[in-house]
Amino acid sequence: MAIAFDEHDRPEPPLHGSEWETLTGFLDYQRATLAWKTRGLGAEQLGRTLAASTMTLGGLLKHMAYVEDHWFGRWLWDVPNREPWASVDWDADEDWDWNSAAADSPEQLRALWSSTVERARDSAERAVADGGLAREAAHRWPDGRGPSLRWILTHMIEEYARHNGHADLFREAIDGATGE
Question: Which of 58, 67, 66, 69 lies closest to 101 in space, CA to CA?
Answer without folding.
Answer: 58
